[in-house]
């Protein structure tokens, strides 16, 4: 079975500071890992994904994520947080199938 | 591209009534997914289709739920009869015909409240 865990329900960070949203995964075989963002009353928007290759993946809105096979992690990062980054962030995993399994989400609050 | 289109965006219905949610996937996408989002359970995969054929419906909670995809551009998720515990956001998503790992694109969701 494939799954992801997001250990933090909420992350608080001050604007301008770096942010990290954590995700660990469990999957047999090679993982395909994704990050999505959900703004209030909206659908999920794709941010970035890791399929293969470089462990550091760059995505939309200045976000990046680092794939770490030994730690089975795929943490989302941004060097300088913006108030507008406040949203719900989901990590997801897929492997040989086509559907994704999502984590429970982490609420990011960036304060001015 | 218009993206994945869902209707209705919001629905309030009384317990026992039939609810039909509709979805139009992105043109050319041949995988279609229905997810449900609740505070307690997060995002759950209900069912997905490939080329209009249901592939995995193991996430459908019970017989009150049914989903169809009569053609490549339309799918429905039906709840009959509806119950208050069905209140949730229902998302439709679609995916390009490509190897695993291709991005799934979501609609804006249908907010269902059953009173």
In DSSP terms (H or I, runs of 4 or more residues), the helix count of chain A works out at 0
How far from one another are the termini of chain B?
36 Å
The main sheet of chain B comes to:
7 strands, mixed
Q: Total number of helical segments of chain B?
A: 0
The radius of gyration of chain A is 13 Å
Nearest-integer average pLDDT of chain B = 93
Care to count the β-strands of chain B? 11
Mean pLDDT of chain A: 93
Shape of chain B: globular
Query: What quaternary form is this?
Result: heterodimer
Strands of chain A, total number: 12
- Class from secondary-structure proportions of chain B: mainly beta
Strand content of chain A: over 45%
SSE topology string of chain B: EEEEEEEEEEE
Main β-sheet of chain A: number of strands, strand sense, barrel status? 6 strands, mixed
For the largest interface, the chains and their residue counts are: A-B, 24 and 25 residues
Structural class of chain A: mainly beta
Radius of gyration of chain B: 13 Å
Question: How would you summarize what this structure contains?
Answer:
With 112 residues, chain A is mostly beta strands.
């Amino acid at each position: 079975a494939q799954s992801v865990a997001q250990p933090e329900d909420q992350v608080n960070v001050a604007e301008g500071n770096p942010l990290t949203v954590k995700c660990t995964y469990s999957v047999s075989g090679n993982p395909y890992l994704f990050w999505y963002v959900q703004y209030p009353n909206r659908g999920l928007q794709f941010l970035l994904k890791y399929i293969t290759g470089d462990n550091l993946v760059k995505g939309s809105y200045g976000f990046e994520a680092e794939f770490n096979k030994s730690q089975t992690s795929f943490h989302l990062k941004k060097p300088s947080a913006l108030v507008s980054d406040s949203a719900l962030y989901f990590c997801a995993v897929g492997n040989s199938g086509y559907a994704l399994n999502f984590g429970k989400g982490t609420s990011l609050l960036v304060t001015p | 591209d218009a993206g994945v289109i869902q209707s209705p965006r919001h629905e309030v219905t009384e317990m026992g009534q039939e609810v039909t949610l509709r979805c139009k996937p992105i043109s050319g996408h041949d995988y279609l997914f229905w997810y449900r989002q609740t505070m307690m359970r997060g995002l759950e995969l209900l069912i997905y289709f490939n080329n209009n054929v249901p592939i995995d419906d193991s996430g459908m909670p019970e017989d009150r739920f049914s989903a169809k995809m009569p053609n490549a551009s339309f799918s429905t998720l039906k709840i009959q009869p509806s119950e208050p515990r069905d209140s949730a956001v229902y998302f439709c998503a679609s995916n390009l015909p490509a190897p695993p790992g291709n991005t799934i694109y979501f609609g804006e969701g249908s907010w269902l409240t059953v009173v």
